[in-house]
Amino acid sequence: MTIRSVIKGSGSALPARAVPNAEMAEMVDTTDEWIVERTGIRNRYIAGEGETTSTLATGAARKACEAAGVDPASVDMIVVATATPDQTFPATATIVQQALGCTGGIAFDVAAVCTGFLYALGVADSMIRTGMAKRALVIGAETFSRILDWEDRTTCVLFGDGAGAILLESADVDEADPRAPGIIATRLHADGSHNQLLYVDGGPSSTGTVGKLRMKGREVFRHAVVNLAQVLEEVLAEAGKTAADLDWVVPHQANSRILDATARKLGLPPEKVIVTVDQHANTSAASVPLAFDSAMRDGRIKPGDLVMFEAMGGGFTWGASLVRL
Ligand code: UT7
Question: Among 231, 245, 275, 241, which residue's Cα sits nearest to residue 257?
Answer without folding.
Answer: 275
